């Protein structure tokens, strides 16, 4: 017994072809604006959650989960979003998927305003057919009472694909994510391992042939050896199906591996955004620098002696005035408390919301690192 | 407080020999730990690395005798020269918290939500040292300062839910250190923390360990965490230690195919555009007692001999050992 066939690796013959398999009705996700037009443009997106309290159930405070976030997702790229808990990355993901409406702000999908089907935009139902999501908890996001094949076929059926066609598609997708359909199709979620379940969730997200897939911590609950398998699969599927990813994670190494551009969030705001190499090699925001320096090194000879930051991220209920990072920032000055930094353009699509990056801000170190 | 904890040469602080743990319920049996031998010197930090289901947390709980009644534990467990397996309930309650204490991944569930932080620390001190309430309260304040909680005096009166994740974890460390344990068991204490907070807690643990001279067994699945804190590393797979050795040698080149695969499949540095090396397949089910190398079905180097018997631990020199027939 020389080599044992590794379960979870698809034989090459099982790969799905990128197109031509699905009925015409489902193949209409055509590129409208051309490659230069962003797939998704978000402008001033805001979501606050009221905290009710007291006898009368009045609003006693507001969690400013996402507070004026602006960015674009380009066609065919992977945009990584990083940040600590409470920074608003998961709320952003839910807003992108329109699982909740934003308070204010606009979302434009390939030139069409999202949720305004009557006013010349794209209706939510059509939008959601083109944008799908994979969640962190692979078990909670599958129906425990449906065989996985039925879970994958469910959405296409809702969108008008025939039962047999939806089933064929589910089996093709199972093969594409490396689960042999003949042995897996009729299994229930509890009969699978975490990695296998996450593959099913990815297959389900692809069942509608979306253009944009939002991955909210898709590998965080997986063991390292399985994480690598799923990351390789995601890279492979992206190419195979011509997808665009928004990849949300707290793991900086994973984000560096998979992203073309990276967005760093802090307390509901964008701290820095730019091409992956610029963010990792020339971070302009002190928070990004601290975040990168907080990664444990695998080399015991390179052990840190002092932590890059002290304390925990503040509560998004009452964020600090001015720059929200100033309470933990080693370089904070008076200006940081009194005025909110603008996004300073560092060239090449690299933007940072820090007074130091903006030569005209009045910070004593302004322009020094830019 | 470190005077009583001076290292005594040659007597290991902890000694596990051939420890087995099986969970037996009506409908299934799980062989969680299958013959673990492990030593810990005084004042040493050992990281047990492994994926979920490898038996690392169960081993820790066996050391504390915290496993449920339906768990069958066999083998010998010695801590500071005492036989833990033979302890009575009464001895155990002195042993737990007194000689050995433990910190967990989720401080929110490990602490009592209806008592203040100060009370929970003082309770442990009163219980084990029989001191007065006011002396215990003073000790609680000292401990909160030791774990570097800002405005410690005010925080004594705080309930666990009022603290942030990082402070809560520090408070749990304070509870664990209340009775100056000789051995601290840490079960993924930084896994649930944010990156910038995780490094703070790791550095704090390292500092406290050096200051107090405790032995620490730190369970983690994160190679980076092991790199930051460990003196020695033991890698577990399917309930067995497959490789053990000093951290520097391990990180620069593991000997056993499993940790080698683990190190290669961990994303680090700039690996963009490269295909990640993976370990195919998934860990084995533990329904049957392993009779051969449990890693063989996923191992690229496997051959017939791997399936015939459980490979022995091979000495590799430099205090390193590996459980693979290809070694040595």
TrEMBL record, chain B:
Keyword Lipoprotein: no
Entries under Gene3D superfamilies matching the protein: P-loop containing nucleotide triphosphate hydrolases
Location(s) in or outside the cell: Cell inner membrane
Domain of life: Bacteria
InterPro entries named in the record: AAA+_ATPase, ABC_Ni/Peptide_Import, ABC_transporter-like_ATP-bd, Oligopep_ABC_C, P-loop_NTPase
Any matching Pfam family: oligo_HPY
CDD domains per record: ABC_NikE_OppD_transporters
GO cellular component, one term: plasma membrane
Keyword field: ATP-binding, Cell membrane, Membrane, Nucleotide-binding, Transport
Keyword ATP-binding included in the entry's annotation: yes
SUPFAM superfamilies hit by this protein: P-loop containing nucleoside triphosphate hydrolases
Gene Ontology biological process: peptide transport; transmembrane transport
GO molecular function: ATP binding; ATP hydrolysis activity
All residue ranges annotated as the ABC transporter domain in the record: 14-263
Its membrane topology: Peripheral membrane protein
Family, per entry: Belongs to the ABC transporter superfamily.
Name of this protein: ABC transporter ATP-binding protein
